Amino acid sequence: MLNFDYKNPTKILFGKGQIAALAKEIPVQAKVLMLYGGGSIKTNGVYEQVKNALKDFEVVEFGGIPANPEYDILMEALAIIKKENITYLLAVGGGSVIDGTKFLSSAALYTGEEPWDILTKPIRTEKGMPFGTVLTLPATGSEMNSGAVITRRSTQQKLGMGGPGLFPIFSVLDPQVINSIPDRQIANGITDAFTHVLEQYMTYPAKALLQDRIAESIMQTLIEIAPVILKDKSNYEAASDFMWSCTMALNGLIQKGVPTDWSVHAIGHELTALYDIDHARTLAIIAPSLYRYKFNTKKEKLAQYAERIWNIQTGSVEEKAMQAIEKTEAFFHSLNIKTKLSEYTDDYKKCAGFAAERLKSRGWIALGERKDITPDDVFKIVEMSY
Amino acid sequence: MLNFDYKNPTKILFGKGQIAALAKEIPVQAKVLMLYGGGSIKTNGVYEQVKNALKDFEVVEFGGIPANPEYDILMEALAIIKKENITYLLAVGGGSVIDGTKFLSSAALYTGEEPWDILTKPIRTEKGMPFGTVLTLPATGSEMNSGAVITRRSTQQKLGMGGPGLFPIFSVLDPQVINSIPDRQIANGITDAFTHVLEQYMTYPAKALLQDRIAESIMQTLIEIAPVILKDKSNYEAASDFMWSCTMALNGLIQKGVPTDWSVHAIGHELTALYDIDHARTLAIIAPSLYRYKFNTKKEKLAQYAERIWNIQTGSVEEKAMQAIEKTEAFFHSLNIKTKLSEYTDDYKKCAGFAAERLKSRGWIALGERKDITPDDVFKIVEMSY
């Protein structure tokens, strides 16, 4: 096991009816900016529950944060925070709303001139404006971690930020919200969380027995609940396991003591920036090709994953590993997630070059658990994904 | 899955050489009371490493905290805290030293007349004096939770305390310390951690799929590393998995969303109070009898445990469940832990009555995940353990 530091101070309020409990987590004198997305919370009952919980607070609202939270829109919210002397933020939404709120938490206390510098320099946030979240879409794990990804369409950039000051003070996870999520987004959430685990697992063996097993536990649970929840979104037990698995997949725990990769995400972000393909789907496009391309360095963990997750007990390490990649693709297909770029766009033929160039143009950050993936490798991996 | 609240703000510094990093976790102006036990830290190099890390702080020392931390001795340390105007506590030791430090953290800020009231009333600690820990003996999980158990020999009492103010600010887990731990204490640590998982798992099925699997991951890891670490304590990888498994077994995570029992601990504590039997060994004495006695309510989870942990795939639920209890006893025996009270003392014949009476005399707290274990049941469970 590798050395690690681990701290995660977010308080989780999990279960039926927990939205009502959020008021006791916010300081009584707070002036709250409530942030949300396209307004689905107004039709599924979450908006009313949150407003009711906040009835003793002074509340300003800011809706309309889009998927892949957009910098220019967030700057409008920042202006409101300053004008209204907001002291506490409440994100009500999925990963995009929560990530956008993390940017605002940081930007609200940022003393530099240009908040975009937080993303480009990047600046680690040691202290942000306190915020809580009410999760309405399990997927990204943002509700219990300190990272965020922000998009700026005018420059076609999608950049990450983070720091210990960006953990939510609290997050409400009420699995009942899942009943009103469209199938497409549930499939995305499962794919996103599953790939989060893969990025922290599919590297080289590091003799971190417990960490491996916890990662496998999350994948096993997602595979078990996926058909159940896609068949019946009102199944509270499956919804609970789905929601909690997404949080545990990226709350920092399973990455501790082990090498991590994250190159699937790095490459996938470029596909979203270029083609506006859903984040989760870009991961399903890139992951199988990346595992085939880096087969020699990942085959031992692929074989362990084959045995423990897919119950493939016969064959050589290589045979098991290869079958595991096929099983992973089949799992994505079972969610109605396509795994080839050409199934999403006709305009894919220059994508490999664009993706490699874009990653390079921002100052190449070595990818892969051994930092050995080059721009040329990215080109080949994306090409394999056509 | 049941509703839950979860928050654990302790920072973990895990790995080789992490003792040196503790200084940056303590406020620069702190006056530190360093607490330890019988002095083994002076022969295994930990004392020097801690003192070196603290070289820029004003430090007072208090050694001699015994196993099952004794109230009267802790009161001596409390007098020093007040006399010396201590502002920060540092526990260097195992669960007893850490638990004792938690009592002091609470008592140092307690405004009532009699600190023993914290245990008898009991008083929940919302805020304590800040403290960190350097763990030298993996077992209790106290390094990453907010509970403690304190003993008072003059009244033969062993009582629990806790509260959100009693999480360590940080805990250093350097697996290299395991190399100097006597075999007996390593076996105790494995047994203690394994039983902690059982108490949070061996109840009734609650459809918390991920929580069950994480609990199972810890048990599988402990079973896998037990023979390795008992054969070679210098095996750093096995030591790492042992240490981290003990922490994860009782840091609050796996008890969330599921029913818990804790009756093995409640009854076991009485055996320690009456006979001074090592805490972990009392758990190995009580657990098998308790599972046989409460077989009808626990058999489904026992059967799941049989299948997933002991690979028992054939037979009825009852047959699998019964075999799993036998496998558990065999596991304890493989650690050289005896599982019958008569193997520890000749004076056992009145124990069942004493244990039941003592639990009753303090105001009966219903035991078991369904609160259905009566004093008469305790009598029978202890009698089955003779």
Automatic annotation (TrEMBL), chains A, B:
Keywords: Oxidoreductase
Record's keyword annotation contains 4Fe-4S: no
Protein name per the record: Iron-containing alcohol dehydrogenase
GO cellular component entries: cytosol
Pfam families documented for this protein: ADH_Fe_C (PF25137), Fe-ADH (PF00465)
CDD domains referenced in this protein's UniProt entry, alphabetically: BDH
Domain Fe-containing alcohol dehydrogenase-like C-terminal stretches: 188-383
Biological source species: Cytophaga hutchinsonii (strain ATCC 33406 / DSM 1761 / CIP 103989 / NBRC 15051 / NCIMB 9469 / D465)
